[in-house]
């Protein structure tokens, strides 16, 4: 069983594992080998330092607890039997919702400017907004 000691190397290695895997079975097999280690205040302090954040002791404790709950939930999800569940990218079966890219009739410049309160050389004229 693979055991990662610090939070960031663990995430980095999981991402690398994911990128190397081409199908769902491989991903499940590899992730099943990973033992999640709880996150310590030292890990939170390290990440806060990387992000140049100053955290209070209360925030450090709060984030450590929250991140450990997330990892515990991920561990619980790993125990689910997903053998007959097809991998999906979305919860709902969605199709491409974009319209077809085709030419169509647009307003002419004269039509667009027809209700403009002021125009100059084919452009909308607006008051300057400057302070000071």
From TrEMBL:
Residues 53-80 form a coiled coil. Gene3D superfamilies: Glu-tRNAGln amidotransferase C subunit, N-terminal domain (1.10.20.60). Signal peptide: none annotated. Keywords: ATP-binding, Coiled coil, Ligase, Nucleotide-binding, Protein biosynthesis. The keyword Transmembrane does not apply. It holds the Pfam family GatC. The keyword ATP-binding applies. One of its GO terms (biological process) is glutaminyl-tRNAGln biosynthesis via transamidation. InterPro entries: Asp/Glu-ADT_sf_sub_c, GatC. Its EC number is 6.3.5.-. GO terms for molecular function: ATP binding; glutaminyl-tRNA synthase (glutamine-hydrolyzing) activity. It catalyses: L-glutamyl-tRNA(Gln) + L-glutamine + ATP + H2O = L-glutaminyl-tRNA(Gln) + L-glutamate + ADP + phosphate + H(+); L-aspartyl-tRNA(Asn) + L-glutamine + ATP + H2O = L-asparaginyl-tRNA(Asn) + L-glutamate + ADP + phosphate + 2 H(+). HAMAP family: GatC (MF_00122). Allows the formation of correctly charged Asn-tRNA(Asn) or Gln-tRNA(Gln) through the transamidation of misacylated Asp-tRNA(Asn) or Glu-tRNA(Gln) in organisms which lack either or both of asparaginyl-tRNA or glutaminyl-tRNA synthetases. The reaction takes place in the presence of glutamine and ATP through an activated phospho-Asp-tRNA(Asn) or phospho-Glu-tRNA(Gln). Belongs to the GatC family. This is Aspartyl/glutamyl-tRNA(Asn/Gln) amidotransferase subunit C. It comes from Effusibacillus dendaii. The gene is gatC.
């Amino acid at each position: 069983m693979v055991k990662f000691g610090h939070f960031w190397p663990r995430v980095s290695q999981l991402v690398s594992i994911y990128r190397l895997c081409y199908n769902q079975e491989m991903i499940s097999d590899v992730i099943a080998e990973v033992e999640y280690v709880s996150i310590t205040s030292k890990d939170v302090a390290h990440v806060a330092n990387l992000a140049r954040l100053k955290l209070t002791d209360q925030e450090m404790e709060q984030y450590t607890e929250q991140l450990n709950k997330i990892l515990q939930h991920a561990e619980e999800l790993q125990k689910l039997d997903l053998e007959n569940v097809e991998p999906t990218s979305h919860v709902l079966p969605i199709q491409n919702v974009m319209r077809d890219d085709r030419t169509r009739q647009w307003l002419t410049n004269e039509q667009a400017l027809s209700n403009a309160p002021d125009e100059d050389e084919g452009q909308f004229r607006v008051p300057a907004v400057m302070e000071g």
